[in-house]
Protein backbone atom coordinates (compact mmCIF):
# COMPACT_ATOMS: atom_id res chain seq x y z
CA UNK A 1 0.00 0.00 0.00
CA UNK A 2 1.26 3.48 -0.84
CA UNK A 3 1.41 6.44 1.49
CA UNK A 4 -1.87 7.76 2.82
CA UNK A 5 -3.27 10.76 0.89
CA UNK A 6 -0.31 10.83 -1.50
CA UNK A 7 0.48 9.33 -4.91
CA UNK A 8 4.07 9.21 -6.12
CA UNK A 9 4.84 9.41 -9.83
CA UNK A 10 8.12 8.83 -11.66
CA UNK A 11 11.44 7.41 -10.56
CA UNK A 12 14.76 8.65 -9.26
CA UNK A 13 15.41 12.36 -9.59
CA UNK A 14 12.17 12.76 -11.52
CA UNK A 15 10.06 11.68 -8.53
CA UNK A 16 7.16 14.03 -7.94
CA UNK A 17 4.32 14.00 -5.43
CA UNK A 18 0.65 14.28 -6.31
CA UNK A 19 -1.75 14.86 -3.44
CA UNK A 20 -5.03 12.97 -3.57
CA UNK A 21 -6.79 15.99 -2.01
CA UNK A 22 -7.38 19.41 -3.53
CA UNK A 23 -8.71 22.23 -1.34
CA UNK A 24 -10.60 25.29 -2.49
CA UNK A 25 -12.32 28.04 -0.54
CA UNK A 26 -11.54 29.64 2.80
CA UNK A 27 -9.46 27.01 4.61
CA UNK A 28 -7.03 27.79 7.42
CA UNK A 29 -3.95 25.61 7.82
CA UNK A 30 -5.37 24.14 11.05
CA UNK A 31 -8.67 23.27 9.34
CA UNK A 32 -6.82 21.46 6.56
CA UNK A 33 -4.78 19.50 9.08
CA UNK A 34 -7.91 18.49 11.02
CA UNK A 35 -9.67 17.48 7.83
CA UNK A 36 -6.74 15.39 6.57
CA UNK A 37 -6.57 13.60 9.93
CA UNK A 38 -10.24 12.62 9.59
CA UNK A 39 -10.33 11.92 5.82
CA UNK A 40 -7.67 9.40 4.85
CA UNK A 41 -7.09 7.79 1.45
CA UNK A 42 -4.93 4.68 1.19
CA UNK A 43 -3.90 3.92 -2.38
CA UNK A 44 -3.60 0.25 -3.49
CA UNK A 45 -5.28 -1.03 -0.35
CA UNK A 46 -6.09 -4.24 -2.24
CA UNK A 47 -4.22 -5.97 -5.05
CA UNK A 48 -5.68 -6.75 -8.48
CA UNK A 49 -6.08 -10.37 -7.37
CA UNK A 50 -7.96 -9.35 -4.21
CA UNK A 51 -10.18 -6.99 -6.21
CA UNK A 52 -11.08 -9.84 -8.57
CA UNK A 53 -11.88 -12.11 -5.65
CA UNK A 54 -14.27 -9.57 -4.14
CA UNK A 55 -15.99 -8.92 -7.47
CA UNK A 56 -16.44 -12.63 -8.17
CA UNK A 57 -18.20 -13.07 -4.83
CA UNK A 58 -20.33 -9.93 -5.11
CA UNK A 59 -21.36 -10.10 -8.78
CA UNK A 60 -23.72 -13.13 -8.71
CA UNK A 61 -25.90 -11.42 -6.10
CA UNK A 62 -25.96 -8.02 -7.78
CA UNK A 63 -26.75 -9.23 -11.29
CA UNK A 64 -30.21 -10.33 -10.13
CA UNK A 65 -31.04 -6.75 -9.15
CA UNK A 66 -32.12 -3.89 -11.45
CA UNK A 67 -30.43 -0.51 -11.29
CA UNK A 68 -32.58 1.95 -9.36
CA UNK A 69 -33.24 5.54 -10.39
CA UNK A 70 -34.09 6.90 -6.94
CA UNK A 71 -33.08 6.42 -3.33
CA UNK A 72 -35.06 6.79 -0.10
CA UNK A 73 -33.30 10.12 0.64
CA UNK A 74 -32.79 11.02 -3.06
CA UNK A 75 -29.03 10.82 -2.56
CA UNK A 76 -28.17 8.19 -5.18
CA UNK A 77 -29.26 7.64 -8.79
CA UNK A 78 -28.32 4.74 -11.07
CA UNK A 79 -27.37 2.21 -8.42
CA UNK A 80 -27.83 -1.28 -7.03
CA UNK A 81 -27.09 -2.17 -3.44
CA UNK A 82 -26.88 -5.15 -1.15
CA UNK A 83 -25.56 -6.20 2.25
CA UNK A 84 -23.38 -9.19 3.05
CA UNK A 85 -22.34 -10.76 6.31
CA UNK A 86 -20.85 -14.06 5.10
CA UNK A 87 -17.72 -14.03 2.94
CA UNK A 88 -15.12 -16.42 1.62
CA UNK A 89 -11.98 -16.92 3.69
CA UNK A 90 -9.85 -14.78 1.35
CA UNK A 91 -12.34 -11.90 1.34
CA UNK A 92 -12.73 -12.08 5.12
CA UNK A 93 -9.01 -11.39 5.28
CA UNK A 94 -9.48 -8.20 3.21
CA UNK A 95 -12.36 -7.06 5.40
CA UNK A 96 -10.30 -7.75 8.51
CA UNK A 97 -7.63 -5.39 7.13
CA UNK A 98 -10.28 -2.70 6.62
CA UNK A 99 -11.54 -3.27 10.16
CA UNK A 100 -8.06 -2.96 11.60
CA UNK A 101 -7.12 0.10 9.53
CA UNK A 102 -10.31 2.08 10.06
CA UNK A 103 -12.06 0.81 13.18
CA UNK A 104 -9.49 -0.93 15.39
CA UNK A 105 -11.62 -4.05 14.97
CA UNK A 106 -14.94 -2.49 16.09
CA UNK A 107 -16.95 -2.77 12.88
CA UNK A 108 -20.57 -3.66 12.10
CA UNK A 109 -20.94 -7.26 10.85
CA UNK A 110 -22.97 -6.39 7.74
CA UNK A 111 -21.00 -4.90 4.86
CA UNK A 112 -22.80 -2.53 2.48
CA UNK A 113 -22.25 -3.10 -1.25
CA UNK A 114 -23.03 -0.17 -3.56
CA UNK A 115 -22.92 -0.68 -7.33
CA UNK A 116 -22.93 2.69 -9.10
CA UNK A 117 -23.56 2.55 -12.87
CA UNK A 118 -21.25 4.46 -15.20
CA UNK A 119 -23.91 7.17 -15.58
CA UNK A 120 -24.88 6.97 -11.89
CA UNK A 121 -24.26 9.73 -9.34
CA UNK A 122 -24.14 10.13 -5.60
CA UNK A 123 -25.53 13.55 -4.72
CA UNK A 124 -24.37 15.70 -1.78
CA UNK A 125 -25.47 14.23 1.54
CA UNK A 126 -24.40 13.44 5.08
CA UNK A 127 -24.97 9.81 6.02
CA UNK A 128 -27.71 9.37 8.61
CA UNK A 129 -26.59 8.94 12.21
CA UNK A 130 -29.32 6.31 12.56
CA UNK A 131 -27.41 3.78 10.50
CA UNK A 132 -23.74 4.24 11.35
CA UNK A 133 -21.37 5.78 13.86
CA UNK A 134 -18.50 8.21 13.53
CA UNK A 135 -16.48 6.33 10.88
CA UNK A 136 -17.19 5.10 7.33
CA UNK A 137 -14.64 3.20 5.25
CA UNK A 138 -15.16 2.56 1.54
CA UNK A 139 -13.15 0.37 -0.83
CA UNK A 140 -13.36 1.58 -4.45
CA UNK A 141 -13.42 -1.21 -7.06
CA UNK A 142 -13.57 -1.21 -10.89
CA UNK A 143 -13.10 2.54 -11.40
CA UNK A 144 -11.42 5.74 -10.25
CA UNK A 145 -13.71 8.57 -9.21
CA UNK A 146 -13.74 12.02 -7.64
CA UNK A 147 -15.47 12.52 -4.28
CA UNK A 148 -16.32 16.09 -3.28
CA UNK A 149 -16.82 17.21 0.32
CA UNK A 150 -18.39 20.59 1.11
CA UNK A 151 -18.65 22.18 4.55
CA UNK A 152 -22.25 22.11 5.82
CA UNK A 153 -24.06 25.40 6.54
CA UNK A 154 -21.14 27.61 5.62
CA UNK A 155 -21.76 31.06 4.18
CA UNK A 156 -20.75 31.38 0.54
CA UNK A 157 -17.91 33.67 1.59
CA UNK A 158 -16.70 30.93 3.98
CA UNK A 159 -17.14 28.04 1.51
CA UNK A 160 -14.78 25.11 2.05
CA UNK A 161 -14.51 22.37 -0.58
CA UNK A 162 -12.23 19.34 -0.74
CA UNK A 163 -12.02 17.26 -3.92
CA UNK A 164 -10.66 13.76 -3.36
CA UNK A 165 -9.20 11.54 -6.04
CA UNK A 166 -10.21 7.96 -5.16
CA UNK A 167 -8.12 5.63 -7.29
CA UNK A 168 -9.37 2.16 -8.16
CA UNK A 169 -8.53 -0.30 -5.34
CA UNK A 170 -8.03 2.50 -2.80
CA UNK A 171 -9.67 2.76 0.63
CA UNK A 172 -11.06 5.99 2.06
CA UNK A 173 -11.67 6.40 5.78
CA UNK A 174 -14.05 9.23 6.68
CA UNK A 175 -14.52 10.07 10.36
CA UNK A 176 -15.39 12.79 12.86
CA UNK A 177 -15.06 16.25 11.20
CA UNK A 178 -15.25 14.87 7.63
CA UNK A 179 -18.10 12.54 8.58
CA UNK A 180 -20.38 15.04 10.34
CA UNK A 181 -19.46 18.53 9.15
CA UNK A 182 -19.24 17.95 5.38
CA UNK A 183 -21.56 16.64 2.70
CA UNK A 184 -19.98 14.13 0.34
CA UNK A 185 -20.81 13.20 -3.24
CA UNK A 186 -19.36 11.26 -6.19
CA UNK A 187 -19.13 13.50 -9.23
CA UNK A 188 -20.95 12.53 -12.43
CA UNK A 189 -18.89 11.56 -15.47
CA UNK A 190 -19.06 14.95 -17.20
CA UNK A 191 -18.05 16.73 -13.96
CA UNK A 192 -15.35 14.25 -13.01
CA UNK A 193 -12.20 16.40 -12.92
CA UNK A 194 -9.42 16.48 -10.37
CA UNK A 195 -7.57 19.78 -10.57
CA UNK A 196 -6.87 20.02 -14.32
CA UNK A 197 -7.10 16.31 -15.12
CA UNK A 198 -10.15 14.45 -16.39
CA UNK A 199 -10.95 11.37 -14.30
CA UNK A 200 -12.86 8.75 -16.28
CA UNK A 201 -15.58 7.30 -14.05
CA UNK A 202 -16.90 3.92 -15.14
CA UNK A 203 -19.10 1.49 -13.26
CA UNK A 204 -17.93 1.51 -9.65
CA UNK A 205 -18.37 -1.01 -6.85
CA UNK A 206 -17.99 0.22 -3.29
CA UNK A 207 -17.46 -2.12 -0.35
CA UNK A 208 -18.48 0.01 2.65
CA UNK A 209 -17.88 -0.77 6.31
CA UNK A 210 -19.24 1.18 9.26
CA UNK A 211 -19.18 1.15 13.04
CA UNK A 212 -22.18 1.14 15.35
CA UNK A 213 -24.23 4.35 15.76
UniProtKB/TrEMBL annotation:
Superkingdom assignment: Eukaryota
Cofactor: Fe(2+)
Keywords assigned: Dioxygenase, Oxidoreductase
GO annotations of cellular component type: mitochondrial matrix
InterPro entries attached to this UniProt entry: AlkB-like_sf (IPR037151), ALKBH7-like (IPR032870)
GO molecular function, one term: dioxygenase activity
Species in which this protein is naturally found: Drosophila kikkawai (Fruit fly)
Record-given protein name: Alpha-ketoglutarate-dependent dioxygenase alkB homolog 7, mitochondrial
GO biological process entries: DNA damage response; fatty acid metabolic process
Gene: LOC108079448
Keyword field contains Ribonucleoprotein: no
Keyword Signal in annotation: no
Amino acid sequence: MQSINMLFLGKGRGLRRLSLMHFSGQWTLLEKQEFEADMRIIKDFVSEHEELGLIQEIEPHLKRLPYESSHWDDAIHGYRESERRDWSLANRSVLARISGSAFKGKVMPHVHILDLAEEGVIKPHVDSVRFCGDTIAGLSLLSDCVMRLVKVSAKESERRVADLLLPRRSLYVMSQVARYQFTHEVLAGDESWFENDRVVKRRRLSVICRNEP
